[in-house]
Please model this.
Amino acid sequence: MKLDGSVVTSFFRDAFSLKADCASAEEIQNSIQSGAKIKGTNMCILILAILIASIGLNMNSTAVIIGAMLISPLMGGIMAIGYGIATNDLKTAKSAAFGLLFQVVICILTSTIYFTLTPISTAHSELLARTSPSIWDVLIAICGGLAGIIGVTRKEKTNVIPGVAIATALMPPLCTAGFGLAAHKLSYFLGAMYLFFINSFFICLTTVVIVKILKLPCKTMLDKKAQNRLRINIAVIAVVTVIPSIILAYGIVKDAVTERNVTNYLSEQFAFSDTQVVKSNLNQDKKTIEVALIGKRVSDDVLQTLEKQLPKYGLDGMSLKVTQTDLGGAVTQDEVKELLDSDENINVALKDQEINGLKNQIEEYQNNEKLYQNQISELKEKIEGYQKKEFNAEALSKELIALYPEVTGCSVGFQNDWNKDATGQQEILAVTIKGRNITTSKKNKIADWFQVKTGAKTVKVYVNPK
Model:
């Protein structure tokens, strides 16, 4: 069967036609203008949505934030601005713009008051996600705006608008801006307001585009010069809005590529049969890859060779820092997992193993005490050193959790640390804490606290977010 070209063309034209089930121009106008009105009901719902979103961000609850976005009435004003621009209805556009500005001010003031009064001041992941917009947020705003105005112009209303409200997320950025003001963090405020502007501008722009495509009647006619001036202004604003998001996206992509290269490097170069990687961390600021090993000790020569492989994985300028827990023999991945999952302090258990090993060597040396007197003295000194370092890890952990509620677990013990710039091994007190939103400042304070409590010369704190 041979298909006629006109039949195929007609099929695709009908399949993607925006006019097939389009509502009348009057219905579209009434629907958009109704959604932009500033009235008691909308303002009450707006304030409730602000409080719900602020609480959701404060408690890091995605479900609560989604609920706030669903009931937020901000979308109507933005679409009304776009509709007014597209139909040359300046009265509607100005009225909607004033109403939107009023709503934005109310949102920021309400969220600022909430975050000033709340006792929880931690910036959780849901809040931080609204402070660094990128080009992907621009694409979401464009797609969401197109879907939103298409849904509004249909005869039968669907669930498009609630979906667009969730995708474009107008309410959370304003609440995040309020958090930035309450916490005196200008970067949070500016990042959140930039995200809100991206969403608002491109929802407005896509509304203009769809209204023009549908050829809805214009209230007044502009001359060509005025139309060209309007188009140029919109294009300039769009370019200025997009450029910072592209720059931010470049940084995100660069960091993601580096993290992928580090993952490949560790999986290929640290594939030891007798030694396992317990933890790894990429420090972008210091350009350091920190690796914690457990099992049979890896020699300094091998570690130096591994560091020379970094450029092959696109990790030029990076340095390798390895911390080893030497068990004196091989250890499998299953054994490592069992140790990490157990409630016992892994480092205390390893310390006991080393002490037992040293005691066994003493028994061997005592068979010829005169010959090995010096070795016996050295080993006894090591045992005394280990015993002097004993402390109540459980009590310290409970005290730490009481001081820092965001810490949910703690592992403490002495380990050997290797660094290419240092000679030989350096013994450090390694502290692994579980929890989220542990800032660098808090890590440093925790390290100082353990140094005072244990008397250790060097304390290093690792964070396990799980």
